[in-house]
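In this supplementary section we document a worked example of the pipeline. Step one takes a protein sequence of length 348 as its only input; no multiple sequence alignment statistics are reported here. Step two produces a three-dimensional model, which step three serialises into structure tokens for compact storage. The input and output of this example are shown verbatim.
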Amino acid sequence: MKILVVINIVVLLFSLSLSAQEDIDVGKTGWDVKRPVMAAACDNGCPWGELGDYVKEAMVPYGYSVILCRNCNRWYGPSLVSEHDYPPPLDEINIEDGVNVRVNAPVDFGVTSSAMLSSAYSDKLFGEGPFRNLRLIAKIEDPFYYLIAVRKESGIKDFSIIKQKHLPVRIMGADGNMMTILKYYGLTTDSIKAWGGNTRVTVTEALKGDFDIIAGFLASPSMNPESSYWTALSQKFDLYFLELPEDLLKQIAKQNVDAEFVEVQNSLLKGINRRIKTLGRSGEAIFARDDIPEQAAYDLAKAIDENHEALKWFIRIYTYDPKTVWKNFGVPLHPGAERYYREVGYIK
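The serialised model returned by step three reads:
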């Protein structure tokens, strides 16, 4: 009975939070009135949220009033921009992130990860696309790493011991990259389950200590929602960070268009006491459709460049590189942005 009461209270509270959401009419929007809607994310440390704030502020001197869509995050941005569509309804994840307002206006441009923009343009993104009318405006560097850590008390130094001893390991981060690792060592999710393990550990479970292995491509000491568990778990538990064989790293790199070979520096996180060779990814892309006015694209590229010193004050470690700002894994650069980069000499 007590459990049912608790469940009912949780459901009621969530229902009340959803009912508190608000659709706001922001009036006339679009590039022609210098009031474009930007696909961004939450303002509680979400990377696309703070980059949305950055772009909004950078565009003010040019007479633009950018309207941020806080729930146009995750995989939504590229399709919303491509189709000039309206934001989706708010959901539980939005509410948890502190987003309770939905902008009732079509989306004009946005920010997403470099890899997600590339996938959306060239192939399919979660079954949708390709969206060939998307164009790059600027790529902002934003480094993070692929790391694998085990509980030190497990004694695991590499994955071969899991197979040898039939260890019932509990894994958080069993994505496609982890599947490649398991296959390399002759392991499967079924074999791990048969030994009493679990390959579907959640962040909540891991924070309670119900894990043996954590892995993922968002490793960073930054405390944004997507990466904060790395700092939390490394501080709370004694972890040992594994280093994968080079040929295995090459296999994982082939699965990730933006992956490159890097070295994680000593002390990036508690428990990293040596340099570790692994893969890194870097890049958040500000993008628009091909029909954005050329002058607007020029203004956007210029505003981002001229205000790039502000990037150092955000949660993530953002940098602006003139050599890479105009390139994003095959996604065409908008002609207006290209005109600016050629004028300042970034494109020769």
